[in-house]
Amino acid sequence: MTDKNHQSFNRQFDSLEEFVDAISERLQCPVTIEDSNHHLLAYSSHDDGTDAARISTIIGRRVPEKVINRFWKEGVIPTLNQSDEPLVIPQIHDIGLGNRVAVSIRKNNEVLGYIWVLEVGRTLTKEDLADLKLAASKAKNQLLQLNMQKKKKEKNHQELLWQMITGDARNHQVISEQLSKIGINPQKPLAVILFSFDVMSDELYKKLVYVAKTTQKINILIQTLDENQVVFLISSHIQNDFVKETKDFIETFKTQIRERFGISQIWSGCGYAYDNYEWIKRSYDEATKVISLKQSFDQELKSATFYHELGIFRYIDILQQAEQVEDITINPAIRKLETYDLEHRTNLLETLDVILNKDGNMNEAAKELHCHVNTLNYRLKRIQEIANIQLKDPVQKLGLYLDMKLFRGR
Amino acid sequence: MTDKNHQSFNRQFDSLEEFVDAISERLQCPVTIEDSNHHLLAYSSHDDGTDAARISTIIGRRVPEKVINRFWKEGVIPTLNQSDEPLVIPQIHDIGLGNRVAVSIRKNNEVLGYIWVLEVGRTLTKEDLADLKLAASKAKNQLLQLNMQKKKKEKNHQELLWQMITGDARNHQVISEQLSKIGINPQKPLAVILFSFDVMSDELYKKLVYVAKTTQKINILIQTLDENQVVFLISSHIQNDFVKETKDFIETFKTQIRERFGISQIWSGCGYAYDNYEWIKRSYDEATKVISLKQSFDQELKSATFYHELGIFRYIDILQQAEQVEDITINPAIRKLETYDLEHRTNLLETLDVILNKDGNMNEAAKELHCHVNTLNYRLKRIQEIANIQLKDPVQKLGLYLDMKLFRGR
DNA sequence: CCTCCTTTTGTGGATTTATACTAACGATAT
DNA sequence: ATATCGTTAGTATAAATCCACAAAAGGAGG
């Protein structure tokens, strides 16, 4: 490294832009600095050749999701996260990435961001790489400062989120103003998503937020941690797209958490998106209920993400409480089937349960029970005879369905 | 009338049997005496010729239901009830009735019973008829005495019934013993049937009990009146037959009340039949709930008679109460359809309701809505788009069904 | 052992249901 | 007026469901 360069990295920079230009000048290549979430912090201005990925990054002010994802799959980001050495990355043509070199900006073990150098026209020498490493260590101070501001801001955001979900902030107007004050002005319906984990740590939480924010499938306004639960406040565009996009997000999120960190036991739930911000608490409560009910009825609710998809199970706990108080007897039909099953070593009650779960679709039910459709039809006939019920009558059918669920809960 | 005869009717008779033999002797025909419910009280012993109906009556200790029914249809019994004149009834061959003469035994306007004279070998003269009328007036005293015993017995019965349905008598053993004490020893499951009327009077109550007892479709152990409601304690044979027979009884009962007294607004309900007599109160409560729910959901529950046939509606009121307390919002799907209906002058909400009531049977639903099946399919598709729901998912479908019912209750 | 009863599985044919495509109509906007 | 959209029906065809019947397997009890 030359003295000149050494000095140039040591001097005071007014801004990150000046700094990135200095690196670019030294290496004679386009340079980009990102934060730990791959959001663009600064990019060198005097760039002759730039690849598609860099253009997208600059335009979108963040690295495109598919690029991040690819870097994860290729092991690039994990490697960067684990060392402060520059990493040479060969070009990946199909997503428009030229040859580049990257290094993480870090304080001890915490990654604060990344410097990316695009190798345009030349290949970096060992000396260049050493200087790049030096530059990364110099960038640390700048990013630390930014990071502290960000953390402070986030604290404010989180406090507001807590006020909203605990019901402390009750007035739509007030909430809206406070959101504006901290730079969030959605003018859109807001909803709460929850993810619940078996274990939780500060480190894991950071990873989760990182993944959630980098999937870019959805607009996360505020996030926070509540014991083992991650709370996201999100904004929707149009109601219908919102549902689809959110489901997509949750799907991707879970997949990536599983692939990248090997965690597959994740419960998720999402409340309605409400225009009126008074109801964000309700959205949170709904998301909570989704999770707790999915934990109790994982089979029945495995395709449910939203509160409205809980269907009949929204009422289950109300009824269970009332049942206990009023001491209503178990439906005699169920009791009779139970007795019959015991006496004849049959499984009519389970059969009925499956039929009800499949809403009378005998083919599906037969598949699940590994028996012939006709067998199932025969059993159904017997069930109706024995239990003295009429499944053709929707009223009785629904009643039995509920009874079965309530019955199971004992 | 001869002095001899006159005297013979005036003398003291030790029993109704002696009395009926005296009439038979005088008229030279078989004679039968029934109480007001057509139960056999006495019959003449020295009978040469007897028709099928009389044999059945004597064997069964009461007049067969089809005979009673026929006499009502022919206007015989109404006529007898309205006058104290003997009535000559031509033979009705198809139910085995020969020629006969009947007269009501009455005290003022109250009918206490009937005397039947079978015209075997001879036809009664005017003089015979006058003597028969005299005999009827003499029988009054005997029947009045019987009637008073019966009423007293009934009072005891009713008191026990009240103890059971109010829960005063809690112990199975005790109830069973008390039933035995008053001559009822069913050793069978017992249930409560209720009939509720818009108006009620002592006279109507008597008529109702008369009809209920004479249909002979079911074994009524005790009956009583509770404001506008008639309460029957009934015993069952086998569970399955019980349901069928009871439904049959209720059907017949309502038909006859309508045909004979022109009353068609009748609510009915029946509780389970319980082995354990502690639960007779529960049977009563169930019957009460059947009636009140049928009054609220007459369309949905028009085929329901028994508590177990209430299906999902058993839970409706629990949920409605909880809804009020917790102030749960109306399902957004319903709200959206409502809005859409208003803006486009459509009936999607009603359409959904019918589809749900018909449990997804599009043909039936189309019939009810007077539209083409394809139209309905199209509407369903639109409904699912607009409301963002998925009726293929049974969980959502059931949830919506409940929401619609709860929603309607506002 | 056989017999009776329940249960399972299979077959064939009638009926119902699902789906795609099309014609037609009326309201609304251009 | 013309085009477009949402709506209603009709037809045709494939898919499924339903139903009656029969063969066969397994168990309980004599």
TrEMBL record, chains A, B:
Residues 348-405 form the PucR C-terminal helix-turn-helix domain. The keyword Coiled coil applies. Residues 172-292 form the CdaR GGDEF-like domain. It comes from the Bacteria. It holds the Pfam family GGDEF_2. The keyword Membrane does not apply. Keywords: Coiled coil. InterPro entries: CdaR-like_regulators (IPR051448), CdaR_GGDEF (IPR041522), GAF-like_dom_sf (IPR029016), PucR_C-HTH_dom (IPR025736), PucR_C-HTH_sf (IPR042070). Residues 129-156 form a coiled coil. Belongs to the CdaR family. This is PucR family transcriptional regulator. It comes from Alkalihalophilus sp. As8PL.
